[in-house]
Amino acid sequence: MNHYKRYFNLIFIVFSLIFYLILELPSGIWSDVAIESYDADITLNDQGDMTVVERWVMDYNQEMRVRFRDIKYNKYAENYPLVSDDDNHAMIDSSSIDVEFYKGFINKTSDIRIGLASQGDYDELNQQITCPDYALECESIFVDTYYAGGLDGEVTFIYTYVIEGVVTKYSDISELNWRLFEYAEGTIKDASITINMPNNDYDVSRFYVWGHGLSSGNIEVIDNQTIEVTMENIKNGEFPELRVLMPNLLFPNIRPNNIVIHPDMDFDRLYDYENQLAIATNRRIFIAQIIFYGAFILIPLMGFITYKVYLNHDKEYEPEFQGDFYRELPNEATPAEVSYLYYMKKIKDEVFTATLLDLIRRKYISIVGENENMTALNANFILQRININEEQDLLSHEKVFMDMIFNMIGNKTKVSTKQIEVYASSYTDAKAFENKTTQFVKEAKRQSEKNKYFESLNQEKSISRKFVLIPVVYLGISIFLWMFLAIDTFGAMGISLVIIVSYLIYIAQFKRRSKTGNELFVKWKAFRNFLVNFSSMKDYPIPAIIVWEHYLVYATVFQLADIVMEQLSVKLPKEVFEEEQSTYLRYGYSRYPGSRVFFFHQSFGNSFSQAKNNAAQTIARHNQSQSSSGRGGGFGGGSSFGGGGGGGRSR
Question: Phi first, then psi: what are they for 47, rounded to 5°?
Answer without folding.
Answer: -95, -5
